[in-house]
Specification:
With 106 residues, this protein is mainly alpha-helical. It has two domains: 42 residues; 33 residues, no CATH class. The radius of gyration is 39 Å and the shape is elongated.
Length: 106
């Protein structure tokens, strides 16, 4: 146990030699805050730029998708003025009448 304590004390001595105490003066805290703010601005500007790029990419993708997915042809009048049954009747012809008519001809 004493050996570990001696090694820890030696480590603390080595640490203190490697990192001397900063010179404390009247401008110590303002300089410290300037360093902190400079790092904060640098980090947030990277994230802000990344967010702007993602938003612009999403807007561009939405515009491309809307241009591709919205057809540019004219719709039938039945689509706008008809009922649901009228739209189904226009979409599907009466195949059974054709089959019955062909069966009568035989």
């Amino acid at each position: 146990m004493d050996r570990m304590k001696d090694r820890l004390d030696a480590l603390w001595v080595e640490y203190r030699e490697a990192t001397p105490d900063p010179e404390v003066g009247p401008s110590f805290m303002p300089q410290m805050w300037q360093k902190i703010e400079a790092r904060r601005v640098e980090t947030t500007s990277v994230f802000r730029r990344l967010a702007q790029i993602c938003v612009m990419a999403a807007v561009a993708l939405a515009l491309v998708m809307s241009a591709v997915l919205i057809p540019h042809n004219n719709f039938d009048e039945v689509f706008y003025s008809g009922t649901y049954v009228d739209a189904l009747a226009a979409e599907h012809s009466n195949d059974y009448v054709d089959v019955l008519a062909a069966a009568d001809l035989r």
